[in-house]
Design goal:
six-stranded antiparallel beta sheet; alpha+beta
């Protein structure tokens, strides 16, 4: 894989991210080396129908001194400047030595592309004065006690929301560390992918991660989690609701998840200690109606996805399979590093992605090398309206090189890149910094990708969860298989 940097700019991209290590230890509170992470963001629509049961995003509440709050408020005011410096510093240290003019260009780029407006020092000072005035009033007159850590989190979250970037997001300490672990494919919990089964009014287990607590505890794909809690504490999903049941199932390592599973009409209680596990974002099988075709489902692109993808391809290839359908329906995206590695393995020599600034200028291009594998395999890509971001690049790149026929319906349409940067106190902020283009075709941000063969789900399964449709009933999958015969 080669990187062609036309204007000697950044050497990593975003959700799309090429940073191999996404968190650094602080050397000191005054001399901190920050890492920025780029992604094809998957936050366009958090798909609650297919979550992984890992940890939660609720941080602990600690009361701190007013000086700590003031420091936080100051940070809030100058966040744009700090983020800009961190962005520049990271790539300056990592890739090349920049001139002052180049750095100033990046300062202008971040201020304009992320915020959309230039923020003056006077405006920053005024914001700080407002916050200090408000804090002084509450400190003097508020009757009830309040927690400064909570206030800080709300201020930073509101700042990210008010910018107008639909993908900007603030992470408190716990959420940030969990997000970083998730990007690398590491999670805490019981280790299952789940969805809602409307017919059973229960939680359907789509997949059980290998060597996870759930796997070791005997949970199987196809199980129905009908209740959380066991014994007298059991509460049925039908009574408390799907979202609440998920919340209760999630948790950190060292705590127990207790629930009731219905399997073949029999209910069984499970008490499983949560721990760390690796996410399984790639699954594969031989198509039920044609044993000459393989199906690889990719549910996201994290740090472990390239290895899992290669294992799936090698397994099918070793069995003589030379026709493969990539199912990226409901795939919300993931990291740049992940998608680039996968595309580099299956595309011929040439561009993989073009990264552009606000003016449409290409500031970086990442290329594949000439060592493409599986050149004798025919591909099809199955996509839908929830195929987004990195999954859309996957789809579009294969189309650009005529390596696959695409089947399904128009994709989501997200062609922007977010960078996640580390803030003081192991907090994080994610924001849009660039847009990107596929290898040769036009961008699809806000438009989506129209497949070569448009096929809607059949009426009889249109209201059914995509993960609950078998090969025999899946007309979209059948059309994808037919397209490569």
């Amino acid at each position: 894989m080669n990187t062609n940097n036309e204007q000697n700019q950044i050497n990593s991209t975003e959700e799309i991210s090429d940073a191999q290590e996404i968190k650094e230890e602080a050397e000191s509170s005054e001399n901190r080396s920050e890492k920025s992470e780029y992604f094809f963001s998957d936050d366009h629509a958090k798909n609650e129908s297919d979550p992984h049961l890992g940890g939660n995003n609720f941080g602990s509440v600690k009361k701190v001194s007013i000086s700590t709050l003031i420091i936080s408020l100051v940070f809030t005011v100058i966040i744009t400047f700090m983020v800009t410096c961190l962005f520049v510093s990271n790539y300056k240290d990592k890739v090349f030595s920049e001139s002052v003019d180049e750095i100033n260009q990046k300062l202008d780029l971040i201020n304009s592309s992320v915020l959309g407006v230039q923020i003056t020092d006077a405006e920053r000072l005024k914001l700080y004065e407002y916050l200090l005035e408000l804090d002084t009033m509450f400190d003097a007159y508020e009757f009830d006690e309040y927690e400064y850590s909570v206030i800080t989190d709300y201020i930073l979250s509101a700042y990210a929301s008010a910018v107008g970037d639909p993908y900007a997001e603030y992470y408190n300490e716990e959420a940030y560390l969990q997000m970083l672990a998730s990007l690398k494919g590491e999670n805490q919990g019981i280790g299952v992918s789940i969805t809602y089964d409307a017919d059973a009014d229960a939680i359907y287990v789509i997949n059980v991660m290998p060597n996870s607590p759930a796997s070791n505890g005997g949970v199987l794909p196809g199980d129905l989690i009908v209740a959380v809690g066991i014994g007298d504490k059991a509460e049925y999903v039908s009574d408390i609701g799907y979202s609440e049941a998920i919340t209760r199932l999630q948790g950190v390592k060292g705590t127990k998840a207790e629930f009731i599973v219905s399997r073949n009409g029999k209910e069984t209680e499970f008490s499983i200690m949560r721990s760390e596990y690796e996410n399984q974002s790639v699954t594969h099988h031989i198509y039920e109606l044609d044993n000459t075709v393989g199906v690889i489902r990719i549910t996201g692109f994290d740090g472990l996805t390239p290895g899992q993808f290669e294992e799936a391809m090698n397994d099918l290839y070793g069995k003589g399979i030379r026709k493969v359908v990539f199912d990226v329906r409901n795939n919300p995206g993931g990291s740049l590093d992940s998608i680039v590695k996968i595309l580099d393995s299956i595309l011929p020599e040439g561009p993989i992605i073009r990264i552009v600034n606000k003016d449409g200028t290409v500031v970086q291009q990442i290329d594949s090398d000439k060592n493409a594998k599986y050149t004798d395999v025919k591909f099809a890509v199955l996509a839908n309206e929830n195929t987004a971001s990195a999954a859309e690049l996957f789809t579009s790149a294969l189309m650009d090189y005529n390596r696959a026929v695409t089947v399904g319906v128009k994709t989501f349409g997200k062609g922007s890149m977010q960078s996640t940067l580390n803030l003081t106190g192991d907090r994080g902020i994610k924001m849009t910094v660039y847009h990107y283009l596929p290898p040769y075709s036009e961008g699809y941000d806000g438009i989506g990708i129209t497949p070569d063969v448009t096929v809607e789900l059949a009426d009889e399964i249109a209201d059914k969860n995509i993960y609950l449709i078998g090969d025999k009933d899946d007309n979209q999958l059948k059309a994808a298989v037919d397209s490569i015969k």
